[in-house]
User: Fold this.
Amino acid sequence: MAVSQLYATSSTRSETFLHYNSSPSRFIQFGSRNRLFLIRTFNSSRLKTPSFCVRNVSSEPKQKLNHPVVSEQASSALNGYTPDAASIASSIKYHAEFTPLFSPEKFELPKAFFATAQSVRDSLIINWNATYDCYEKLNVKQAYYLSMEFLQGRALLNAIGNLGLTGAYAEALSKLGHNLENVLGQEPDAALGNGGLGRLASCFLDSLATLNYPAWGYGLRYKYGLFKQRTTKDGQEEVAEDWLEMGNPWEIVRNDVSYPIKFYGKVVSGSDGKSHWIGGEDIKAVAYDVPIPGYKTKTTINLRLWSTKVPSEDFDLYAFNAGDHTKATEALSNAEKICYVLYPGDESIEGKILRLKQQYTLCSASLQDIIVRFERRSGANVNWDEFPEKVAVQMNDTHPSLCIPEMMRILVDLKGLSWKEAWNITQRTVAYTNHTVLPEALEKWSLELMQKLLPRHVEIIEMIDEELIHTIVSEYGTVDPDLLDKKLKEMRILDNVDLPATFANLIVKPEESTVVVPSDELETTEEVESVNEEPEAEKEGTLEEEKEVEAVPEPPKLVRMANLCVVGGHAVNGVAEIHSEIVKDEVFNEFYKLWPEKFQNKTNGVTPRRWIRFCNPDLSRIITYWIGTEDWVINTEKLAELRKFADNEDLQTQFRAAKRCNKMKVVSLIKERTGYNVSPDAMFDIQVKRIHEYKRQLMNILGIVYRYKQMKEMSAAERKAKFVPRVCIFGGKAFATYVQAKRIVKFITDVGATVNHDPEIGDLLKVVFVPDYNVSVAELLIPASELSQHISTAGMEASGTSNMKFAMNGCILIGTLDGANVEIREEVGEDNFFLFGAEAHEIAGLRKERADGKFVPDPRFEEVKEYVRSGVFGPYNYDELMGSLEGNEGFGCADYFLVGADFPSYIECQEKVDEAYRDQKGWTRMSIMNTAGSYKFSSDRTIHEYARDIWGIEPVQLP
Assistant:
């Protein structure tokens, strides 16, 4: 169904329009849930300029701005007026003329998008400011969600959908000569994230606003994002993302909201006995605010993004005029590059420094802002004991872990609190979400690097580490030195660092032997005798070389950020039931034994607004019709009512029709992005996620190679009888320096180039890699998917969220018992999920079996690898990629992610998929059961749990 059909449905709702005056606590209201709209009409011959209050969302006093908002004609009609397409069109025309970003001659698509977005933003600003005012006046406890990523996607459809104005905007743009779908297509995805971490953060903000919880998000405003992905004959190519080149109509820069950030320098003790961090490099973090509207509610919360710069006096005009332009702009360049790129490559020391600068900028600017807001709300008498009763800070993974020492620094050094007071406040305020069990993602920073960049924070971390040692010693005593040593090695924040002086004699290590072997005895040894056979001149040098080889390098001194998060926060949560158990039993087992009350599970969720209501309007209409209400968009438990209609032929027919309509959109997308023609009659089999070995895109493509090889060995009739036609679609980015992941991308595209041009195979099998996968592409692929692959090595995926989106959209999953797959399978029913592979508790044993040389690979697996090596997919040498699946031990080999172990189970499960797909009635029933069983995986449910169990915040219904 075309998007415009949804708009027509949306615009039929009866709406009442109420008058708005300049008071920021009043709204323009309409609709059953009091939605708002600010009408702008423009009459060039008679322009009035009434006063309009635009509140800075930060903390500044109100400012009255004279703004030509409403014409005299519209002003007289405001009371009781229903916003219609004509008034919206006037608002869009106003912005096209009076807040232009394009030349005035034409009203083409880019200009239409910006004018439309600015028109929508007017509506958001009123509720945005009123939401802020309400929180200020009530002084409610507020949650602050800190994340390095917010993967929002396009904002226009989401905003007008949440405001209930989709149909009205579609009609208004039609009057102006444009189609809403085309205008929507002009918006670039905000390049503020990459994967599930950022998409989850954006879903959470949507749910927080929709459920009326007082909360803000904090992140960084990346100029170039991660990268824009292109695929060439050489594989993945990275180019800079250009999402800000034309400007961002949703953001408002707050030039009056900026905070100092310091790097380097030194720490000195002042005459007041306090530590002072002086010297070094100083920059400023400036706030850019983005409104986040709730669905059918007045609440509009804030996403505050930080950009970095230096004051103009740091521009060295003397050096510039002397011709040394690099020196003149060095300070500016150092500041600005902090927010250039998401996750800059950290292979170099410069890259590591830049990443640490990013993380500290996010933490310091956000905490300074939070504390300023707390002090202002407290009035003349600030009671710091109340801080945790008014503020909850959630660290989304370890990236914001510097919040802990930064909060301590501010409270102790700047606010004058004692260490004990500050530590109590910090621990009660901060909480940590763990998103991974991968050791490389549990960040460890070089102590030397951190001492150089953040000297005061290292002092604080050392003191926190010492506090932890005290706690461990108090808990376990010193009777068993081996036990105590084990606890300290596993739990300390500082790794490979000597115990503090107060604990120097705590663990007595055996002394090294002091026996000296006489030189004449040494010379009789077999090793030295063989050396003596060499010419005299080489003797000494050779012995010296042997000594050097035997020397064991000292392990690097590290700061374990995940341990810091656990120690410094009051709550630690995993993001799926199985993941939270792994967190307790393995990742942080020693901490769990010490503080079991800290550990919780909060299974992830996704917003049903974007991920069904707006991206899949056909399915949304079907659900609403059969359930009898649209309340499922907020109360997803109503989706379960679809179960009783799962065998209804009319519902099944509608489900298949909606799926085919969505598949047709993807057929066009694939043709546009890759040039390949695919059949909408084939099964759409999709795996879209970050390219990583543990997510096992390699197993998927090797399974496809096995399928292709089988096809090539059959007659046309045999192929048709055995195989269901499939379009196998991949999407996702490989990190720029992750060589093996980039090899996988190259391999997928090479297989596609061979298979897709094979006339013998035709439409029976197609392999497509969609470049530059992002939220907007996901909004097309997910509704069209019939089979979705979530095939990570069991125990390695924390949760996953795309699996939830696919299930919501009536897609059947093939996967392992990993992450949220476990709970999805429980909810949708075992018969409606294709399960294969080893379970989490078996993984360690399988790896040991491999290390012991006892693994016997399946002949089909060996056959596939040899087929790849035969060169059938082109001249590229895939020995390195195939070699990673061979051997028994060593870095880069031994099949650590167990592709070979799970391969037989995987291809056998795929045969079951083919068999099930031939029965379209049964397949459609499975599809319906997936949508019906997805109700648990709404981010609304997740946010209710965070609010109740971790943050201690309550909904605030705006007046």
